[in-house]
Design a protein that fits this description.
Elements (H helix, E strand, L loop, with lengths): L1 H33 L1 H4 L6 H37 L2 H7 L4 H43 L18 E8 L5 E9 L8 E12 L3 E16 L9 E16 L22 H27 L34 H64 L6 H26 L4 H24 L7 H23 L1
Antiparallel strand pairs: 1-2, 2-3, 3-4, 4-5
């Protein structure tokens, strides 16, 4: 039995790691395509992008791990069935359930590890990822001088260079428009050559053999409206530009720590309690504020602000009010109705926002458990499915794995969105896919145990032929 167990574990581990890293690579490529606009042209170092991808990979585990377990279990038992090794194991008196037992222990270990990962590691990774992505998105495009193009990256300046040297710092035929003056007239600097140097905060252009043009109003602008043009030649001059805004500054992570995805079970429980207390305070204050609008007025006898028996009014209420006061009463009622409507709409929006935040916390709380449960579920779907189809490799097992995983993922995504919108409870919304597919896993396990030809084409062809034979024989008997 130990040799069989060791054989099954070895047959499972290799495709598991291969499929896991392949799926992680594909998901990371999709991540790069999604955020490519935030990364290009900002001059990031290679280690910053690798750090961002490293933190993003933690969020992809929730998709990569269940899919890898499903695919590797199908491949493992499909290969055993295709090579008749599964038949040999059964002929030795070992049932399918006993053969699955060592892998089940391994999957339980992976499920527990995934729960610990989602509760402790994932919130920290999401915190690092969220703060780093915020800094990347808020970083300005990297300053870059291109040949023959005006560059307007630095505020207040337009820089054009005809040609750059092979060393990357030599410049030829430089033209600079300076728009930083208060009079709205740009200063122009033209130089035959120059050199560029920069650090983290400043860009320094050392220009040679050039001219500076400055245009300004005359000394007595009220009497002489003509403009004055000043031309200054220089052999060498320095032009300094502030580029500190292009530097990426790291934000304090504590500002992101309160987000729902960056909390563990203890933090989520604490945040849910706080949100429920805030919701209760909002409801109580709304009830107190709105109750003031419904106090009885003393326009009629019996309707006073003191506790006296109410008097029944026959006919319309307006008829009981004196004619000279009816217009003011109607205007007061209309103003009161508008005030109630405005106050109520504001309170409803605040109430809906609080409820939505509570639902998000409850959904994130359930996610900590559904990842571990999905690993167990997809194993009980993949292992018997591989034993039934008896095909190994990357052909049919990949197709079957993708089909079943898409079914699971679509149900989980739709139910999660329904729970977010309030159509389903957070618990039922997060566990709906597992509840629906659990009977399927039990059915496939039963079929694999009794050696059912569930996916055998010849088996279904025989059933269809026998059905038509019986139908034709009954039709012939009726004619007779």
């Amino acid at each position: 039995m130990k040799k069989i167990h060791l054989l099954l574990v070895k047959a499972f581990i290799k495709p598991f790691f291969v499929t896991f890293f392949i799926v992680m690579f594909i998901l990371l490529m999709l991540f790069l395509f999604k955020y490519i606009d935030d990364l290009i042209g900002k001059g990031f170092e290679w280690y910053v992008i690798l750090e961002l991808m490293y933190y993003a990979s933690a969020a992809n585990v929730s998709m990569a791990l269940p899919l890898s377990i499903l695919l590797s279990s199908i491949m493992t038992f499909g290969t055993l069935g295709e090579n008749y090794e599964l038949v040999a194991i059964k002929s030795a008196g070992v049932s399918l359930q006993k053969a699955m037992r060592p892998l089940l222990v391994l999957i339980v270990f992976l499920a527990i590890s995934s729960f610990i990962f989602s509760d402790y590691m994932l919130p920290k990774a999401n915190l690092k990822f969220g703060s780093l992505l915020w800094d990347i998105r808020n970083k300005k495009l990297s300053f870059l001088i291109k040949e023959g193009v005006f560059n307007n990256s630095i505020p207040g300046y337009s820089i054009r260079v005809d040609k750059k040297g092979a060393d990357g710092i030599s410049l030829h035929n430089v033209m600079i428009y300076d728009h930083t003056s208060n009079n709205g007239i740009a200063k122009i600097i033209i130089a035959k050559s120059g050199k560029m140097s920069k650090n983290d905060d400043y860009l320094l252009l050392t220009l040679h053999d050039g001219v500076r043009y400055e245009e300004s109003s005359g000394k007595n602008a009220s009497y002489n409206p003509r403009q004055e043009l000043t031309r200054m030649r220089f052999k060498e001059t320095d032009q300094k530009f502030d580029i500190s805004s292009f530097k990426m500054n790291r934000t304090d992570e504590e500002g992101f720590r309160g987000n729902t995805q960056m909390l563990n079970l203890k933090g989520l429980t604490k945040k849910e309690d706080s949100l429920k207390k805030e919701l209760a305070v909002v409801n109580k204050s709304a009830a107190l504020n709105l109750s003031g609008y419904y106090k009885q007025n003393s326009y009629t006898k019996g309707y006073t602000k003191i506790n006296t028996p109410a008097k029944r009014i026959e006919g319309q209420v307006l008829n009981s009010i004196p004619k000279n006061q009816r217009l003011s009463v109607l205007q007061s009622a209309l103003d009161q109705a508008n005030s109630i409507q405005q106050a109520t709409s504001g309170r409803l929006a605040e109430h809906a926002d609080r409820v939505k935040n509570i639902i998000k916390v409850q959904i994130e709380y359930q996610k900590k458990f559904t990842l571990a449960a999905s690993c167990l579920l997809l194993f009980f779907i993949g292992a018997p499915l591989g034993a039934i189809i008896r095909k190994g490799g990357l052909g049919l097992p990949v197709v079957m794995a993708i089909v079943f995983f898409l079914i699971y993922h679509i149900i989980a995504t739709v139910s999660e969105k329904s729970a977010t919108q309030g159509s389903l409870t957070p618990f039922f919304g997060m566990w709906l896919a597992i509840i629906i597919l659990s009977p399927l896993g039990a059915f496939l396990t039963y079929k694999a145990t009794v050696d059912s030809a569930l996916f055998d084409v010849n088996y279904f062809k025989t059933l269809i032929v026998n059905f038509f034979k019986r139908f034709s024989s009954k039709k012939t008997a009726l004619k007779v």
